[in-house]
Design goal:
Dipeptide-binding Protein, domain 1; single chain; D-Maltodextrin-Binding Protein, domain 2; eleven-stranded mixed beta sheet; globular; four-stranded antiparallel beta sheet; Dipeptide-binding Protein, domain 3; alpha+beta
């Protein structure tokens, strides 16, 4: 009897592991996304779809954790000494092409962005690097031209092998990082396929293939999830479908505070919109609460600025623009646009052809027309719309910042030096005091002093109103119940999916 028990003790773990591998290691996970990634190269990804997919394939010296704090990733440790940052790298890491990760790869990746004529969201920050001094394969010092606080955020850039960093343009099949998944195939406007990296340092992912299916239509995405041909939607569920999915016994829905910030942007070079009273009138004419309730089905929270209340740099004491159509009318009269014969003036309003974006735009357009502003609403597929916004080809538009964590987003969005292609000040907003405070904030390594300066910037921007703050969309994750052990990352990322697995299919 004892021999039988001993045999069972030895055999049972093997049996359980065998069952686990059959249910968790051989499946494909299909993830539905709304739009087409613009550029999956980690040095040049600017849109949310590209960044969220790229983070599964490429890793940086630093990363943001679930609480929004910067922590080491490929770095073992680091120390700051005024204008120098000394890094010790983790050992034993390999790239997906089989080569070893060393300090030379970090230096080559940084130089690639600095020297490239192509636009990179990291280029401005990395231009503050004076030199990268290698002190062996696992030690380096990044020397700055001057003290520069946002450099650690810039060092979240995905590192690629030095042999590839010499090339300006890399095809999908040649890109290699150190992440748990590798880019495998990209069919334009259809899907992106990732394959598990068996040599990943934390163990190979349990799910071997990830397919990101590009499904622009909201109804189609939800139907595909309900019938099981899509397994996961992260911040890609239309608000009116959330309740129905919650009632589906085969689908789990997880809600959380989001940091996806929706705003209405102005072209500050426009002769009408450069008048602050016009912008203030538009802000007071928008009934955010009504749109949140009836269009977004309460899947959003009102916003007062680009940084949400749970961000460490959030300023609660800034000017707000409550719904007040009577005040809005008086402001337009004051600005020289009385309502005498029909409309006061006409605005072109651009948005993407995403159904939810269009519903929001129609609601805002209706409210502005009640004020006497004629609105020509124009919708475009994502790539065309985004290209127009980046090139300043608009009067007003709605867009969303996704995954905002670092308060230095204020520089990227509002500093006068950040106009495209060098940043995202797409409305050409200028304020010398904002520029001065941002420069000061970026030049101090004292966290408390830096946060105080960023809060002052938020106050000035709220007064000047280059954006009308609308709302923060809640994080909504909907998944089939066969997907196990996936915890949504704040802001809509897929980090941690390599630890998830697929159990039995109950459909």
């Amino acid at each position: 009897m004892r021999k039988l028990l001993r045999a069972l003790v030895l055999i049972l773990p093997l049996f359980l592991n065998s069952c686990h591998s059959r249910s968790s290691g051989v499946r494909t996970l299909v993830i539905g996304i709304e739009g087409t990634p613009a550029n999956l190269d980690p040095g040049y990804a600017t849109d949310a779809y590209s960044e969220q997919i790229s983070r599964l394939c490429f890793e940086g010296l630093m990363r943001f954790n679930r609480k929004g704090a910067l922590v080491p990733q490929l770095a073992e440790s680091f120390s700051l000494h005024n204008k120098d940052i000394a890094f010790t790298l983790k050992r034993g890491i390999r790239f997906q092409d089989g080569t070893d990760f060393t300090s030379g790869d970090v230096a080559a990746t940084i130089q690639r962005v600095i020297n490239s004529p192509e636009y990179s969201p990291y280029r401005e920050a990395l231009s503050h690097v004076k030199a990268v001094v290698l002190q062996g394969p696992y030690n380096l010092v990044i020397r700055l031209k001057e003290p520069y606080a946002p450099i650690l955020t810039a060092l979240t850039i995905g590192i690629i092998p030095h042999t590839l960093a010499q090339e300006k343009v890399l095809s999908i099949d040649r890109l290699a990082g150190t992440g748990p998944y590798r880019l495998y195939r990209y069919s334009q406007s259809r899907f992106v396929e990732l394959r598990a990296f068996p040599g990943y340092r934390d163990g190979p992912p349990l799910i071997k293939r990830l397919i990101f299916r590009i499904i622009p239509n909201d109804l189609t995405r939800v139907l595909e999830l309900e019938k099981g041909s899509v397994d996961l939607l992260v911040n890609a569920v239309p608000p009116d479908a959330v309740k129905g999915l919650m009632n589906n016994k085969h689908i789990r829905v997880i809600e959380g505070h989001g940091n996806a910030y929706e705003y209405l942007g102005f072209n500050m070079r426009d002769p009408v919109l450069r008048k602050k009273d016009v912008r203030r009138a538009i802000a007071h004419a928008i009934n955010r609460q009504a749109i949140i309730r009836y269009v977004l089905f309460n899947q959003a929270e009102p916003a007062s600025g680009i940084l949400p209340p749970w961000n460490r740099a959030y300023n609660a004491d800034i000017k707000r623009y409550d719904y007040d159509p009577a005040l809005a009318g008086r402001l337009l009269d004051k600005a020289g646009f009385p309502e005498k014969h029909g409309y006061r003036f006409t605005l072109d309003f651009k948005t993407s052809d995403n159904p939810l974006s269009m519903r929001v735009a129609h609601a805002i357009a209706f409210q502005l027309e009640q004020l006497g502003i004629k609105v020509n609403l124009r919708s475009y597929e994502w790539a065309t719309f985004y290209n127009d916004i980046r090139h300043g080809n608009f009067q007003i538009y709605t867009l969303r910042w996704v995954g905002v964590m670092d308060p230095d987003i204020l520089y990227y969005a509002f500093d006068s030096h950040s106009v495209p292609p060098y940043g995202a000040n797409r409305g050409y907003y200028e304020n010398p005091e904002v520029d001065r405070l941002l420069k000061q904030a970026r030049g101090t390594l004292d966290m408390d002093a830096s946060l105080s300066l960023y809060k002052r910037v938020q106050g000035i921007v709220a007064e000047d109103l280059p954006y009308v703050s609308l709302w923060y969309m809640k994080d909504i994750t909907a998944m089939r119940d066969r997907l196990r052990n996936f915890k949504p990352f704040p802001g809509g990322g897929y980090e941690g999916i390599n630890k998830a697995y697929i159990g039995k299919d109950f459909t």
